[in-house]
Amino acid sequence: MQSNHGTKDEHLPAGQGTVDWKKVCHALQYLDVSFILESRSIEEGRASLGYIAGD
């Protein structure tokens, strides 16, 4: 699963694009799953983690 604007393979940071990450994370908390967060840079990775964590 990746965040994009629905037209190309963008892999945007969480909070950008069309994925509702708050809903995704809420749903995942009830499952015994792991996921990988990919980013284009360390800064974007940190921004995504902060967004998902609610910072």
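(the above was protein one; protein two follows)
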Amino acid sequence: MDKLDVVKKIQEIGVVAVVRGKTPEEAMMMSEACIKGGVTAIELAFTTPRAHEVIEALSKKYADNPDVLIGAGTVLDAITARIAILDGAQFIVSPALDVETIKLCNLLSRGL
């Protein structure tokens, strides 16, 4: 799915669940509950310990489900964005404008 398809899918879904867990296990449970309840766009905040592992697990689990989008939030720099994308994040959300992060996301063809 290219970045424009990701944006269209987010608009179609209409809501993005921002998941901030105290543990990776809690974040995984919360994400799965959201998906089961019909909120299929998940933004896993990097304030969650080992967030990249949760992104990777969710991305693998739902790889064959075109209705589920897994993204990364609270991404503050290009290094974190790269980690998230390599672990399967389909979109990146940042609370700040960082030019290097934008360049990296565009280079790797992910939504920002």
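Reviewer note on protein two: The chain has a mean pLDDT of 95.
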